[in-house]
Amino acid sequence: MSIMYHGAIIHVLDLSVEQPVISKGNLDIYDENEKFITRHVMNLFENNYVSPAQFKEESQMLDLIVDYEDDKFLETSKRLATRFYNYMSRNGNIPSGDLLVVQFIKEEVKYMAILKLNYKEEFSHYINPNNGLGGVTELIKHKAIFPSSRQSITEAVLVDLDTRQLRVLDKSKEQYLSDLFEIDMFLSIKEQIQVVEEATFEVIEENFENPTEALSTFKQNVAESIFQSSEIPIKQIIEDTFGNYDKVKEECASRMADYGFHEDNIIINNSRDAKKYTSHKIKTNTGIEIKLPTEMAKDENFIEFITNPDGTISIILKNIGQILSR
Prior knowledge:
Blueprint: E1 4-13, H1 31-46, E2 51-55, H2 60-66, H3 73-90, E3 97-106, E4 109-118, E5 120-128, E6 136-145, E7 155-160, E8 165-170, H4 177-181, E9 183-185, H5 189-207, H6 212-229, E10 231-233, H7 234-242, H8 246-258, E11 265-267, E12 279-283, E13 289-293, E14 303-307, E15 313-317
Antiparallel strand pairs: 1-3, 2-8, 2-9, 3-4, 4-7, 5-6, 7-8, 10-11, 12-13, 14-15
Helix pairs in contact: 5-8, 6-7, 7-8
C-alpha cells in the first residue's frame, strides 16, 4: 500500500554525550532513504510480533500526542526525543540510537511512527595520510551504524492520530516502551499463537498415550487455515483436531482461558508463519530426532508408532526409497 509522507525527523540519542542532539529541521526524503523508512514503517503493519496497545488515561505521552498538529510536528518530535533520552539516562541498560519520527498517511489514515534505530558496530576502511608512508588503508570501527532496511528494528511505536490507538514493537531486552509511553499493551499475534499452541500441546500430552497424531492434526489444521484465509478460527481448529473428544475440547478451551486468551479468531498479518506448521519434529529421550511433513506424521503408510509391552515406543519408517546421510 502506498504511503504519503508529510515529514520525517531524526534526533540523536547518544548516551556518550550529556544531552540529545536535537535536529533543527525535517529530513529530506528522497528515493533511497524513503525505501529505508517505508520498509521499517510497513513492518509495523505486517509484523506478528507487534502488539496492539492503548494509552492510559494519565499518560503524559497521550497529552503530547493529543496536542500534536501538523505545524507543530518538529516541536512535538523534539519533546518526544527529550523524553526518550531522559528515560534512557535514568535506565542505563537501554542502548544508544537515533530516534526517527515520521508523519504519514496510509489509506486515508494519519499516523505518527516513532522508531528507535539502535546503533551497531561495523568495520570500514580508512585512508590514513599521516602515517609517514603517504597514505595507508586501515580498518576503522564505526559505532553508529543503523540497522539495514532488511534487518528488523526492535523498538517502535505506531500511533493512529485519529483514534489514538497504538501498535507497539518492543523486542528489547528491557521491554521498556509500555513504561515510557504509559500504555497498556495486549497480546501480539505471535503471543496469541504461542498461548494457543502451549494450551493445546499440554492438553494433548495429558490426554493421549501417543500424542504425535493429535499434534500433527492440530498443526496441519492450523497451517491449512492460515494458507486459506489468513486467520486461525480457534473453535473450528479445536473441533477439527479433537472431533468427538468433548472432554479434551473443553479442557483445551479452559486451559486457554487460564492463560488469559478469550479470542475466537487470530488474524494473521503474515502468512509466512504457516510454514512452521508444514513440518513436524519428533524427538526421543534417546536423542533421536525425526523431521517429516506434517501430513505424513499421521499416515501409517509412512510412519507407525508401536507401544511395546514394557511401555517403550518403537517407530517404524515405511516406503523409503533412499536414505541420504548429511
